[in-house]
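ESCALATION

Customer reports they have been waiting on this structure for their group meeting. Please prioritize. Original submission:
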Amino acid sequence: MPQPPANTDRPTRRRGDTQAALLSGYAAPGGHFDELLDASGRPRAWWTAFSGHAGDLTGDTLTTAQARVARQIHESSITHTVFAAAEGRSRPWTLDVLPFILSAAEWRPLARGLRQQARLLNAIAADLYGDQRLVKEGLIPPALVFGHRGFHRACHGVRPPGGLYLHQVAFDLARGADGHWRVANVRAQLAAGAGFALENRATILRMFPDAFRELQVQAVAPYFATLRETLVSTAPCDERSPHIVLLTPGPYSGRYFEHAYLARYFGFPLVEGADLTVRHDRVFLKTIAGLRQVHGILRHLNDDFCDPLEMRADSALGVPGLVGAWRAGRVLVANAFGTGVLESPALRGLLPLLSERLLGEPLATPAINTWWCGDQAALDEAEAVVSAGSVRPALSADQVEPPSFRSVQGLRDLLAAGDLEGSVIEEPLALSHAPVWHDGRLESRALMLRVFAVADGRGDYTLMPGGLTRIADRDRTTVSKGSGGSKDTWVLSNAPLGPRPVDQRRAPAAEEIHGDRAVSSRAAEHLFWLGRYVERAETCTRLLRTALTRLSDASTPGVSQPSFVRACLAQGLFDPSDLETSIVSADPSLAMDPVSASALIHKLIDNLFDAQGRRSVGFNVRQAIRVAGAIRDRLSSDNWRLLNQLFEMVGSPPESDVDLHDALAIIDRAIIALGAVAGLEMAHMTRDHGWRFLSVGRHLERLLSIATTFEALGPEDAADPELLEWLLDVSDSLVTFRARYVRTPEWPAVVELLLFDAYNPRSLAFQVGKVARHVPQLPGSSALPILADLARLEHLCQTVDPRQPDLFAGQTWLENLLRDSQTVALKVSDALTSRYFSHAYELPHATKAGR
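Update from on-call: job pushed to the front of the queue and completed.
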């Protein structure tokens, strides 16, 4: 019997109903180009294609996907404001789940025009800092150049390596109501935002992998490969592979995440001004092995702050003599100094004429109309525009929206008062609107697109296919810094994407490639203290868990109170002032009034989150995140997720009271996270000198913890099996002890396991052995006098035989060993600081040849 035909219209109608539900209520304001709907109200082609490949695109799935995006951003600690602030949380990066999509047909002419404009801007910079023919011929008014704060006379006459002034340049694009793109701003000094664009791509790709593949979205990674290849090929370097660094203002910069992200992506050391010094017109990185020459600097620091000798004299972020070294041709700086003048809005109106003059071709991509207030003819034209509509002060990408002038008199009044920033006015442009997913529905938001161009080293520029789409806050008509959000930008291809072409330029020979990654003195110190703070946090959590467990278990015989109190005080678990006066003032050998178990439990729980207590878990987790933030380029994303989890657990006091059950649950999770941090260190970090400092810091801290805990115990404690079991539990060695000795803990066996067992990672001997092996492998360590003390202490730990029956008849030798261990550990810390860390903060200076 024949079957009836299948109803093929049902899924289509269901999908259509779902799309209609999504689009219902969505509308762009009048007078603005709608990126989603055409003039007839139908979805544009990009939405139809995307929704057809994005799976079950409903309100629920978009809400779930948006939550996943927010969670990934939070776990990776992607921020765009102050990261390492002493107080308060940093602002997370905001990314909309829906990508902004451009067809290949629309992208192709836009990319061609922006490549042309990048070449034009580089040619203008070469002229302004060279023969200045454009000024002499009257094509650029002298006041427009010499009066701009981005023009630096110290850069005149300098031809940078390869003739490249702009290694990267970013264009902020705005689409007007007519549907045409215009250049609204140029970022010629620092092309900020490319790192966020890369992270946006990695995040959204996980949300819609099928749509990304089926729509043949072009990759953004080749942009970064081209930039790296250009820097390597143009940096002045004799025969060896050049040493290139990324210069950042530091962890207090609003874009520090991007700086660290790019440094890790490129494999460049992330450096601050204090990490560099200039000697005889050459730039050097201050490393633990001495000065290492730097051949190229990818800077994310504004001109004014780069060199206090040539730029702002009050800058504490720069490198004295850096401009002189660049001027002498001894170091590549990308972008070149002085390129900030190209950001002048007044240049926009001159670009068509300059393109004809320098490139011999018309300008392909126009800019927003601007008028320089120093030109009367331009002002007359601006007044005519005001009569027909309005104008406003030139708007940079980082400014809030200024008022428009809707009358000629208003314009003249502000001109007379000198209130126009930059003496440039521009014609307002009604930005296009795109959909964002917010509060469970599609909303219309104003949009700007930042596109990045990179020099290819062969006289042309390559564009990142896409860029950074930025969206305005609700009810805002202008995109500005510090508000709104972003989108991943997809540029489609008409043909299947093949493999990336192989670059034909010569790769460095094996002997030209540097061996170890340079470790700056600053990075070494932060790694050292990261190890110490993480270990302190773990010591505190284990001590807290055992203390709270035993205090709260009425069925377990209590640890003798004086010993317990002394051990906790020795580790700084609480202050003497936290205890009752009778306990603090009494002699340990005398009978003491008991401290209330309930009072101790509450005090220990409070101290778990204490942000000020030097030995609290909360304090040490916060300090670990602080120092880790300064070396973020050296840590993996997994490490950051773990550190963020730790901060959420104990980094700040909870809003409500925490009971014993909740406190123990938090401590259990914190111990697991801290163990995972240590596991990532052992499993994934390259065994270079940076890892060695991290490891030494961890083992020194554990050595101090073991020694201080044992030293706090009195002779009478050796006969207390409950205290000995508590001591084994704190040291995470209780299971090992039971499996090895199968008996009630006794003092000789506990001492053997926790002090002299070189195979127990929690023993004193193990820590001494690790430190004694790591420190001599550091560069220049042969000059450290502490090596002899380390060798002596290691030999003592190796030669003691804990099985001798009369070894524990007296305790003096053990007390001396514990004090000696603490003294040596502190001496090692001081020696490393003096030898490797201190000069990281020496007063910066520069030397010249012949002086």
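Sent to customer with the following note: Residues 521-552 form the longest helix (32 residues).
Escalation resolved.
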